[in-house]
């Protein structure tokens, strides 16, 4: 439980901060696509007897770069490109995992998450890559926010929108994969969206949006873990349902206050 709590706090911080830009730039499908695409990287790691998270990070970064360039070099829309890449990667992951005979509990844990099985080495990986992602966001968050609100205006003001957007794609891919062990491929993208969406309901400035997103993310993670512990239910699913409950409480609570 100690490692689970530490891992949950780290993940909550990373995904909440990143989630603000995901919500502002309408990149929810990108996050979901990267999460599903990471299955192929995990499968390669399992078959190669290497660390699946490390391999999945590098694989997902490659997919993010490919998506970035296909969006700009072809006439295909963003959702079409993402759909092609994540379905192909999932298919590759399924084929690769089929080559491993016998019961595969490790695959199940990555699909649905298993926060209680997180290891110290995985916490170190989360901390190292998480620091890199947070550092990028802290250094360039004004420019990234400018691009999110007005990309053309950012270009006119001399901001290199292509480079910053590419790095944002890479950072998002890393953040998503870091959460796969805890929440699973299927649910991890929800923690990107829910806290930032709750924060958007109550925030009046961009800085406040970031702070409130982090606060709601930590409440969601720790509250969900507490409920899952006492109710003896799957942790990842309870975290997401608890966050969804918070969203509706804030949504309808705000409407009642206005009324």
How would you describe this protein?
The protein is mainly α. The protein has one domain: ABC transporter involved in vitamin B12 uptake, BtuC (Orthogonal Bundle), CATH 1.10.3470. It has helices spanning 2-24, 28-47, 52-73, 78-98, 105-112, 120-149, 151-156, 161-202, 206-231, 235-258. The protein starts with a helix and ends with a helix. The model has no long low-confidence stretch (mean pLDDT 86).
Element string (H = helix, E = strand) = HHHHHHHHHH
Q: Looking at this structure, what is the CATH superfamily?
A: ABC transporter involved in vitamin B12 uptake, BtuC
Please report the distance between the alpha carbons of the first and last residues. 43 Å
Tally of helical runs: 10
Mean pLDDT: 86
What is the CATH top level name?
Answer: Mainly Alpha
Query: Biggest β-sheet: count, sense, barrel?
Result: none
Work out the radius of gyration. Answer: 18 Å
Q: Which fold name corresponds to the CATH topology?
A: ABC transporter involved in vitamin B12 uptake, BtuC
Classify the secondary structure makeup into a structural class: mainly alpha
Unreliable stretches covering 5 or more consecutive residues: none
- CATH architectural group: Orthogonal Bundle
What is the number of strand segments?
0
Beta-strand share of residues: under 5%
Helix content: over 70%
Shape: globular
Number of domains: 1
């Amino acid at each position: 439980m100690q490692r689970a709590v530490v891992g949950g706090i780290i993940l909550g911080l990373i995904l909440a901060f990143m989630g603000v830009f995901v919500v502002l730039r309408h990149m929810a499908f990108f996050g979901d696509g990267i999460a599903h695409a990471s299955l192929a990287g995990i499968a390669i790691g399992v078959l190669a007897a290497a660390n699946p998270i490390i391999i999945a990070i590098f694989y997902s970064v490659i997919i993010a770069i490919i998506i970035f360039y296909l969006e700009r070099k072809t006439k295909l829309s963003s959702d079409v490109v993402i759909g092609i890449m994540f379905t192909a990667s999932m298919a590759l992951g399924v084929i690769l995992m089929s080559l491993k005979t016998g019961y595969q509990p490790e695959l199940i844990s990555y699909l649905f998450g298993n926060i209680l099985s997180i290891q110290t080495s995985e916490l170190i990986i989360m901390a190292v890559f998480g620091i890199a992602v947070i550092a990028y966001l802290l250094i360039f968050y004004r420019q990234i926010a400018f691009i999110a609100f007005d990309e053309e205006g950012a270009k006119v003001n001399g901001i290199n929108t292509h480079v910053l957007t590419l790095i944002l794609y890479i950072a998002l891919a890393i953040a998503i994969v870091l959460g796969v062990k805890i929440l699973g491929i299927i649910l991890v993208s929800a923690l990107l969206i829910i806290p930032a969406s709750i924060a958007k309901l109550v925030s009046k400035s961009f800085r406040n949006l970031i702070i409130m997103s982090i606060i709601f993310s930590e409440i969601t993670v720790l509250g969900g873990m507490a409920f899952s512990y006492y109710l003896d239910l799957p942790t990842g699913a309870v975290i997401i349902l608890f966050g969804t409950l918070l969203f509706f409480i804030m949504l309808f609570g705000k409407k009642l206050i206005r009324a």
